[in-house]
Structure formats: structure tokens, C-alpha cells
Write a structure and sequence with these properties.
Bound molecules: 1,3-dihydroxyacetonephosphate, iron/sulfur cluster
Number of strands: 12
Largest sheet: 4 strands, parallel
CATH superfamily of the largest domain: NadA-like
CATH class of the largest domain: Alpha Beta
Helix content: 40-55%
Radius of gyration: 20 Å
Oligomer: single chain
């Protein structure tokens, strides 16, 4: 019989910090992580900022508190570093919606198109793409392609359609979507806006078009956070994953943040079930074990790196 030692969260946090020093590790976290993980992280940011931090770090180990495609991106940009992900099954519905074999056939059916893929995709799909983008630089990536060149945008149909409207580019869209950002109820949000006439609706561009049309501000997670800090408005209805509210409330404690309501009753559907697979306990365990870590085929890594580097070179 084995005996397990129970430790408190405070002891666990101390252990994580000790292991971090011992391993010369950096802990990177996305805004959708549990607040206790965001608190512990050396850096919290959106996909682009996290990719940049991963690229520039001088730590020996990157502990990535986010989803698989984010940790995989960190590995692609740092093939010689160990990249740990507390739960390897932290996937992404959007990445899952573009299986590489189907995507290859799609690409082959449009041989003259430039492929811009949202970073929320697998390394195999990145390797089949010309340029990667995130929600904070997608418009810039699209505008970098000559007007005369047709574009495939994948895998998020909502972000793609939003960018088509914004740039006037008629792009061929892969029909993928995020389960969290398609969960919001336009009818319930309309009611929330009536109940809070002094609030602004702010939304992530992965949300569906009818909701985006009502939003007063649309942006990546970092852009949404920045907007709430800088705006004179005191109340916001926030249509994105609820984890970001932690940083919004921390940055503007005197302002009110209301999570936009999902369609289903009594559910936590505005929380990403993949992001939330990472817990303090799993973070501790992965640092103590040095596992699970991201491993990749070297040839795939090289092919996936090119479109990512193109994005980083074109970003400001
Ligand atoms: P950001 O790049 O805006 O952080 O988006 C990441 C994400 O997964 C949104 O669902
Ligand atoms: Fe993927 Fe959606 Fe979760 Fe973002 S919120 S990681 S797009 S499933």
C-alpha cells in the first residue's frame, strides 16, 4: 500500500517556486488559466505575447500553462529547450476542427492561394500554412499579402469572417470554431445590455457575427484587457473566456465586469474546458517529474517554424 502525503496549496506554491529556481524555469500562462496559476506565472499574456516570451527567454525550461498548441509553438520556437505542459490533453476545439489530412486536401484544391492560419492549430496544419497569425496581428498578416493573391484563412470561421469584413478581402474560410466563443447567447446578452445600459459589450473576434456586430470593442485577450484599463467606461459585459476577468478586476478594481451569458442554463460553458485542465496540483507534479513535456518530430518542427517566424518578422 502506498501512502500519499497531502500538502496544502500554500506548500504547493512554495514547492513550485523552489522547483522553478532549481530548474531555471520560466512559467508562462494564458489569461484563461485559473487565477492561482496566473498569480504564480512569471508572465501572463495573449497568444502572440506568449510566443514572443517563449522565443526570447533564457530559461532552460519553459513551463507552459495554456493549451497544447501554445506549448507546441513554444517548442517550435525553442527546439533545444524542455517545454512542459501540466496536462498534455489540454487541447483546443478550434485546433481539433482542422485535421491535417483534410486540411492538406483543402489546400491542394486551392493551389494559387496563400494560407494564413490562426495560431490555434496543430503543428501539422502550421506546416501546411504560409503565414501564422494570432487575433492581435491577423489583420496585419492579411494586409501583408498582395491584393491580387487569394487567401485561405483557417481554422476559425468567425475570426475569418470578421477579418473579411474589416479588410474587405474575400477569403476562403475553413469552417472551424471555438466551442467557448460560440456558446454565448445573443438573446441573453441583449437582456444583460438592457439591465446594464451603462455597460459596454466587449468581445473576442472568435465570437459569432451577430454578437460581434453589437460589441463596442473587439480584440484579442490582451487588447480587451488594455481597453478596459484605458477606457473611461466603468462597466463591461465581457464576451470571452471568463478567466480574463481576473486580470481585468485586478487592473481596474473600481470597475464592474460582467461575464456574457452562455445559451445553456447552469453551465460553466464560458470557461474553456481545455485551459482548465491545468491545475495547481498538475503544475506542481509536472515540475517535480519533468513530465509531461512536448516532443516533436524534427522535420515537422522545422516546417512548422517557417510560417511562425514569418508572422513574428511581420509583427510589431
Ligand atoms: P488570444 O490570442 O486573444 O489570447 O486568444 C487565444 C485563444 O485561445 C482565444 O480563444
Ligand atoms: Fe481553443 Fe476556444 Fe479554448 Fe481558446 S477558448 S483554447 S480557441 S477551445
Amino acid at each position: 500500500m502506498t501512502t500519499t502525503t497531502r500538502i496544502t496549496d500554500t506548500e504547493r506554491i512554495e514547492e513550485i517556486l523552489r522547483l522553478k529556481r532549481e530548474m531555471n524555469a520560466v512559467i508562462l500562462a494564458h489569461y484563461y488559466q485559473y487565477s492561482e496559476i496566473q498569480e504564480l506565472a512569471d508572465f501572463v499574456g495573449d497568444s502572440l505575447e506568449l510566443a514572443r516570451k517563449a522565443q526570447s527567454t533564457d530559461a532552460d525550461v519553459i513551463v507552459f500553462c495554456g493549451v497544447h498548441f501554445m506549448a507546441e509553438t513554444a517548442k517550435i520556437l525553442n527546439p533545444d529547450k524542455r517545454v512542459l505542459l501540466p496536462d498534455l490533453s489540454a487541447g483546443c476545439s478550434l485546433a481539433d476542427s482542422a485535421p491535417a489530412d483534410k486540411f492538406r486536401a483543402f489546400r491542394e484544391a486551392h493551389p494559387d492561394h496563400t494560407v494564413i492560419s490562426y495560431i490555434n492549430c496543430t503543428a501539422d496544419v502550421k506546416a501546411l500554412s504560409d503565414i501564422i497569425c494570432t487575433s492581435s496581428n491577423a489583420e496585419r498578416m492579411i494586409r501583408s499579402v498582395p491584393e491580387s493573391t487569394p487567401i485561405i484563412f483557417a481554422p476559425d470561421r468567425n475570426l475569418g469572417a470578421y477579418l473579411s469584413r474589416k479588410t474587405g478581402r474575400d477569403m476562403v474560410l475553413w469552417q472551424g470554431a471555438c466551442i467557448v466563443h460560440e456558446t454565448f447567447s445573443e438573446r441573453k446578452i441583449e437582456q444583460q445590455m438592457l439591465e446594464h445600459p451603462d455597460a459596454e459589450l466587449i468581445a473576442h473576434p472568435e465570437c459569432e457575427e451577430p454578437l460581434l456586430r453589437r460589441a463596442q470593442f473587439i480584440g484579442s485577450t490582451s487588447a480587451l484587457l488594455r481597453y478596459t484599463k484605458e477606457s473611461p467606461v466603468q462597466k463591461f459585459i465581457v464576451a470571452t473566456e471568463a478567466g480574463i476577468l481576473y486580470q481585468m478586476e485586478k487592473a481596474s478594481p473600481h470597475k464592474t465586469f460582467i461575464p456574457a451569458l452562455p445559451m445553456a442554463e447552469n453551465c460553466n460553458c464560458n470557461e474553456c474546458p481545455y485551459m482548465k485542465r491545468n491545475t495547481l496540483e498538475k503544475l506542481h507534479r509536472c515540475m517535480a517529474d519533468g513530465e509531461p513535456q512536448i516532443t516533436m518530430d524534427a522535420a515537422l518542427l522545422e516546417r512548422a517554424r517557417l510560417p511562425l517566424e514569418r508572422m513574428l518578422a511581420l509583427s510589431i
